[in-house]
Amino acid sequence: MNVIHTDRAPSHTGPVPQAVEAGGWVHVSALFGADPDGHAIPGDARAEAEQLFDNLAAILDAAGAGLTDVVRVGIVMRHLQRDRPVFNAVWTERFGDHRPARSAVGSPDFGRAGEEPRFMIEVTAYVAHLSRR
């Protein structure tokens, strides 16, 4: 197993890696739309979703993967019905015709104490050439 880290995405405060790769499978830990430097959450849902995808792309790149390698995304939204249309718009812009499996659930309480993120994702990607290491 290889631990993946990049300074271009926020790190966890606890003993949690940004991602790990094993046998070509890249598993991205709970990821938020926070700024990589100050961990600030953007003020509106669209900006937060865009930052979240920027963070995801940076972590995948550090693992030798990209958005087209994503096979599954689990999404947690603080306000599922309200924010899903905005999230879906950014999803479509970033993934284009690529359609990974996905689930979305609502939860009023997740993230770090004192922060109010709208979105959290966990991602699985597969990169065949990494499986031959």
Automatic annotation (TrEMBL):
It holds the Pfam family Ribonuc_L-PSP. One of its GO terms (cellular component) is cytosol. CDD domains: YjgF_YER057c_UK114_family. One of its GO terms (molecular function) is deaminase activity. InterPro entries: RutC-like_sf, YjgF/YER057c/UK114. Belongs to the RutC family. This is Deaminase. It comes from Pseudonocardia broussonetiae.
